[in-house]
Write a structure and sequence with these properties.
Number of strands: 4
Number of domains: 1
Structural class: alpha+beta
Length: 212
């Protein structure tokens, strides 16, 4: 077996750090209530961008493959070496999302919380700059639930959902849950989890980046 290259090591470690964030924060506190079912049912995909600069169009084959995979409901593009502000990353995230915006909605996640001290900014501090893609069809199904039945979102029959009844806003439901979470657990407790993962990231990348 040939030794692992630095690029392969970066992919492995970026995925490991991302999984820590998902399991130790998102799933543990049900910040995204359908994250655990998505992972356990193998509806999640991920791709690590190894280079410092990658044009969004270069990721088209990856995103197209996910679009063609009916089981790919949630996907992440992780860019550990991205250089630029959160604003720059948000712009790049929009370009990535535009590749197949007929299939996916996109959202940027970033290690820096930005200027806002809001709940969303606190909980979106991923170890690395990350683009999240969510299949539109599943979001439509979720939004049609009143109230949202999170544990069953990947087993819904879209044809059985009626669009005539105004659904409860899923975003509002999740945000209210997360606001209560921050109030109950305390910002310091949640931030300490994020900071511990960030420390893991810094130590890990300090060993890998000089070899790239």
């Amino acid at each position: 077996m040939s030794p692992e290259s630095p690029r392969e090591a970066l992919v492995r470690e970026a995925l490991r750090l991302h999984q820590r964030y998902q399991r130790e924060l998102i799933e543990r506190f049900s910040i995204c209530p359908w994250a655990r079912p998505a992972r356990s049912e193998e509806h999640v995909r991920a791709h690590v961008v190894v280079d410092v600069v990658v044009a969004a169009r270069e990721l088209a084959p990856v995103v197209d493959a996910w679009a063609s995979d009916d089981r790919a409901e949630v996907a992440f593009i992780i860019a550990p070496r991205f250089e630029g502000s959160p604003g720059n990353f948000a712009a790049w995230s929009e370009e990535v999302g535009a590749l197949r915006d007929d299939v996916f909605l996109s959202a940027p996640f970033h290690p820096e919380p930005g200027d806002s001290s809001g709940t969303i900014q606190l909980l979106r501090q991923t170890p690395d700059p990350t683009v999240q893609l969510v299949r539109r069809a599943r979001l439509d199904e979720i939004r049609a639930q009143d109230p949202p039945h999170y544990t069953d979102i990947f087993k819904l029959d879209l044809s059985e959902l009626q669009a005539g009844k105004p659904p409860r806003t899923v975003a509002a439901s999740v945000l209210a849950h997360n606001d209560r979470l921050v109030e109950r657990e305390g910002r310091a407790t949640l931030q300490s989890i994020i900071d511990e993962i960030d420390g893991d990231r810094d130590g890990t990348y300090a060993r890998i980046f000089p070899l790239l």
